Amino acid sequence: MITGFPLLSAIIFLPLLGAIGIGLLPSSRPALIRLGALAVSLVTFSLSLAMLLGIRGVGGEFAFTEKVDWIPTFGITYHLGVDGLSGALVVLTTLLSWICILASFGPIKTRVKEYFISFLILETGMLGVFLSLDLFLFYIFWEIVLVPMYLIIGIWGGADRIYATIKFVLYTLVGSLLMLVAMLATAFAHQAATGSWQGAFDLLTLRGSAFDPGLQLFAFAAFALAFAIKVPMFPFHTWLPDAHVQAPTAGSVILAGVLLKLGGYGFIRFAIPLFPEGAHAFAPLMIALSVIAIIYGAIVAIVQTDLKKLIAYSSVSHMGFVTLGIFSFNQQGVDGAILQMLNHGLITSGLFLLVGIGYERTHDREIAKMGGWASRTPVYAALFGFFLFASVGLPGLSGFAGEFLVLLGAFLANPMVAGASTLVMILAAVYLLWMYQRIFTGPLSSFLSGLGSHLTDVTPTEILTLAPLAAMIVAFGILPSILTSSFAASVATFLAAAGPTLP
Amino acid sequence: MNGDLLTIAPLITVIVGALAVIVSDAITPARRLPPIGIALAALGVTAALLLSRAGETSVALSGAYVAGPFVVYLGLLGVAISAITLLVAPAFLAARKLPTAEFAATLLFALAGAILVGAAGDLITLFIGLELMVIPGYLLAGYAKRDPLSTEGAIKYFLLGSFSSAILLFGLVILWGSVGTASLDGIAFALAAAPEGAASPALAVALALITTGVAFKIAAVPFHYWTPDAYQGSPTPITGYLSVGPKVGAFALMIKLFLVALLPMASAWVPIIAILAAATMTLGNLVALTQGNVKRMLAYSSIAHTGYLMVGIVAAGSGEASGVSAILFYAAAYAFMNLGAFAVLSAVGVSVGASSQLDALAGLGRRHPFLALLATVFLLSLTGIPPTAGFFAKTAIILAAVQAGGIATLLAIVAVLNAAIAAFYYLRVVVYLFMREPVEGQPEPVSAPLLRLGLLLATLGTIALGLAPTPLLEAVATAIGG
């Protein structure tokens, strides 16, 4: 049932329509294609802002819902809705999408048309994942995301792009296919219990139906595997450094900024509320894996020689905080986890954009070859420093609030775990600041001086891609409550569904 | 008798159409369009006749021929498969100076066999239908008679095919002898009435022989050895047909034998079929991984798809009727996506001497973006990525298996892990299409209007069944209701 303008459908499918429109443009007009893609992504961004205004104060309910029967034989519906949690992630997606499209104007010179078509289809897939309230629909968007990302890494990526992109797809597929089996088993359990397929894939119907404990364990394990691969949690993270290193800049940004969040979102929205008993049974394991990811990611980041790989491993460490917070099952932990997802989306995206900007000039990411860069490009160095300190978790910038809340939540659940994880904030300072020191300070390296006048400072367009991220990092650093209050109702609903906190 | 003629009218139309094609070729020899036109017209009339009596069940020829929703579904699917093949093949055959009329007539005879399998009410009709369906297949496999590979594939196909028919026939005869009736329903009734544990050694032998024979026909591991050679050697559009038409027909045969006649013995055959299914999926996919020839790779992938379809048989044998509807849905989805994939290969390899190695597809995305896009749609569908027919087909099979529980659920997990293996080799083709530079000296794809129409139909089927599966879901529900 749809009443009024289907805003969410418009947000999801506008990029797809844009992709079709770009498909009709001649390949010989790359400038027109670029501007068209940017225009579509900006309109989508504006619509998502309008949506954000519309969901203020709706509480724990889903707003702008649309529900139409799609495959009635199995009770599958086209069911969309948005709340504070998904609303924030949708805006993050639409924001990063136009930033990425703008950031791709320069670097993408071959097959421009195919690139922007892929990117816009990717945006549709990501938005669909966040806005679906039907499990089947969610799954379809989840899989649709894979295809354009596969192409983006595989066509426009670095030298080893084919290995990286196939690894990315296979890892993700193994997890998601088992999730499909679990999803169908759940739907069938609902059908067997109620005698009807009505609502068998509907999140709102299934949430709160107490499934049989055996099914809960199996289904949670299958869902958790799919999401853990996406987050990625240790030991399923090995696809991430490869994908990040090989992906073009915008691909890395979207990967870090949005795709990793699909995993965290999946835990909060689907896996835990549907199978709380399963979630509690697996919680100790999930917490242990989170702590390992936090520490392991940080230690491995220290020894990296490739700049992108270093940030990729720092992502593994940072995303560990997300899962740690979620499985603390308390207000602080979950608030922190969601904050961490959003902040990581802003900060790491900024870092990948900066690495890409540097790569455009040097065509290298080898840390050892750099040195003294700040003397040639002060603005670039300053921007890099800003995002780096945000990533370290400097109080006053947004990275701090999320990690602090997660640690608080973890401390309430298990002080030992929190203690171990806190040490990592020091490790993060070590690998990030040491990296900064090696690249930007000291005498100008022979490699960089050899580049001569090619080593220019950031352009106004590049500043335009970074400025919104920087502004939000400052704003949410000072007032994280803007965010936490926007998704407070979602967190309350989640905690109610997730059941009692850990003993 | 008049009623009987009306009931078997679709069958008669197909055969008359085949004869008309031959006659027309005698009147205007070496013309390429009339045979295709006549054959398509015959298919159109057949479809109309099938649809006109869609809702009713009637029995003709003393119970040998049962016209009902099942044969309507199977007949329409056969018409679609034949029509797409008829559209795709002529350009390819013309380039090799192979005759069109004999091809069209042979294809129609095979369709008549498939309809007879779908309509069979007893073991004899079933066997005759099967042979009528597969013998044209042997002819088609050796259609490029001057090509040694085609001849070799056809001989292997013919020898192993005849051998397996003999085994199957032997099994059918023993079954008939020990139960005392050849009627499928009669056998089921007699077996169900027999007291538990009264299974005679003769029945066990019959079951073993029938299972072996059927496994050959559907190309299940370990009886699959004929497929790669037969598929690689045949002219590409014919390979497309062979990988779909006879397979769908063989599964209709399997449904009739295992899910109608032998259903009361399900507890005896479900474990065997389950093991064969797991082996078929896994081996088909693992060997497909290592193939550098696209036709051979698709041959092994079709073995893997046989395995997925067998999961549906296991689910249905475990008492979950939706297993049958899942098989029927999968068969339609598989037909469109596989015919589409082979249609693209036919377009790319239409000129004589074109290679069917992966390299032949390198850089197609740059040379012919639209053809490469269609190829990608078919490959994604074969992988099972939404929103395509292949995705929903896999979902239907898995859902049936999960509903059946027990061994079928384990098979569902094996099936999805296999789907991930399969993704590797299907997506490797996409790598060649879009991520490799074109190899110098590749012949240009030829675009014939009929070929384009065939590609269009396959694409529409592949996408429509993914986006809006409901009409077909209702159709398969009707098909097993009757």
Description:
The complex is a heterodimer of chains A (503) and B (482). In chain A, 74% of the residues lie in helices and 3% in strands. Chain A has 503 residues and is mainly alpha-helical. Chain A has one domain (7-202, 217-498). A two-stranded antiparallel ribbon of chain A has the order 1-2. The two termini of chain A are 42 Å apart. The model of chain A has no long low-confidence stretch (mean pLDDT 89). Chain B has 482 residues and is mostly helical. Chain B has one domain (2-481). Helices cover 78% and strands 1% of the residues of chain B. The radius of gyration of chain B is 21 Å and the shape is globular. The mean pLDDT of chain B is 90. The A-B interface holds A 70-74, 114, 139-140, 143-144, 146-147, 150-151, 154-155, 161-162, 166, 169-170, 173-174, 177-178, 180-181, 184-185, 187-188 and B 365, 369, 380, 384-387, 391, 395, 398-399, 402-403, 409, 412-413, 416-417, 419-420, 423-424, 427-428, 430-431, 434-435, 469-470, 473-474, 477.
Roughly how many Å apart are the termini of chain B?
Answer: 23 Å
Shape of chain A: globular
What is the strand tally of chain A? 2
Low-confidence stretches of chain A: none
Give the assembly state of these chains: heterodimer
The class by helix and strand makeup of chain A works out as: mainly alpha
Spatial order of the strands forming the largest sheet of chain A: 1-2
Q: Give the largest interface pair and sizes.
A: A-B, 31 and 33 residues
Name the average pLDDT of chain B: 90
Radius of gyration of chain B: 21 Å
The level of helicity of chain A is over 70%
Order of helices and strands of chain B: HHHEEHHHHHHHHHHHHHHHHH
**What is the domain tally of chain B?**
1
| SSE order of chain A, one letter for each helix or strand | HHEEHHHHHHHHHHHHHHHHHH
Average residue-wise pLDDT of chain A? 89
Number of strands of chain B: 2
Q: Which outline of chain B best applies?
A: globular
Residues in β-strands, percent of chain B: under 5%
Summarize the main sheet of chain A. 2 strands, antiparallel
Major β-sheet annotation of chain B: 2 strands, antiparallel
- Give start-end ranges of low-pLDDT stretches of chain B: none
